[in-house]
Amino acid sequence: MVEGGEQGREQSAEGAGLLEARGVHVRAGQTLAVRGVDATFRTGEFAAIIGPNGAGKSTLLRALLGLSGLEAGEVRLNGRPLRTWNRAERSRRLAYLAQSEPLPPETRVRDVVTLGRGAGEWRWGLLPTRPWSEADEEAVNRALDRTDTRRFEDRRVSELSGGEGQRVALARALAAGPELLLLDEPTNHLDLAYTLDLMRSLRREVEAGLGVIAVLHDLNLAARADRLLLLSRGEVLATGTPAEVLTPEHIAAAYGVRVDVTEQAGRPLVIPAD
User: Fold this and answer.
1) Which end of the chain is more exposed for a tag (fewer CB within 10 A), N or C?
2) Is the separation of the CB atoms in 94 and 86 below 8 Å?
3) CB 177 within 8 Å of CB 142
4) In angstroms, rounded to a whole number, what is the distance separating the alpha carbons of residues 171 and 228?
5) 85-116, pLDDT tens digit by residue?
6) Domain carrying residue 204
């Protein structure tokens, strides 16, 4: 696991790219959806959160972002309680990509990506929080290049396919220069080609120093991650490498199904046994 990030990625005074959950409990309505979760996520690592429906995956992700109140426990970012970071500080270090990212349909792709800089209001004729800078322009160009979206930067969002729109949403998140990128089922509604394309893009970002935390349903897709966190009924059932977590015993305990697990291209391959 790598500490730090790519050159130009912002670093905090406390040390970069470390997000920790310590004894986290989160209530969703009347239900304690997440119970006693301990987990650590770092830059330079692709971590996937897996588990059956209702296991608490998305609830945990929202807690890691500071979007859900905690019943107990603590989330820490770079050694500091997450609640002590203001919104601007937090957004410079943590970027979020939702399941179905809403994008303004009649807006140019490039203008959407500028919003990731936090100074995007300048583009819309609103009162800017700070002047648009050369560094902002470079970050937007870099995000467009890294997601292969520069070739249609002048098109409107309404003209894009679902996969292209998801790449634009990723570019907007990357333009912020975060230390950690959190994604909630990012491959939902994508076909196989776009799914694999997105996973390759995320892997390139991890190799450049970004930390990725993704909620994934597809276990064979999750096998491409560096580390897995398997939730069952709101609790951590197993954590470790894909080979350590994706075992018939763990899958039976979490999902209630029988599977066979083989190896393909150095990764576990989960096959239903029934």
Assistant:
1) C
2) no
3) no
4) 25
5) 988 888 889 999 887 767 888 899 999 999 88
6) 18-272
Q: ∠ CA 72-240-169 to the nearest 5 degrees?
A: 75
Helix (H) or strand (E) holding 210: none
Q: What are phi and psi of 273, to 5 degrees?
A: -90, -20
Residue 90, burial from CB neighbour count under 10 angstroms (0-12, 13-18, 19+): middle
pLDDT in tens, 209-247: 999 999 999 999 999 999 999 999 999 999 999 999 999
Checking DSSP bridges between strand 227-232 and strand 235-240, what pairing results, if any? antiparallel
Closest among 33, 42, 93 to 62, alpha carbons compared: 33
In-domain check, residue 5: no
Q: Is residue 164 part of a domain?
A: yes
177: domain CATH number is 3.40.50.300
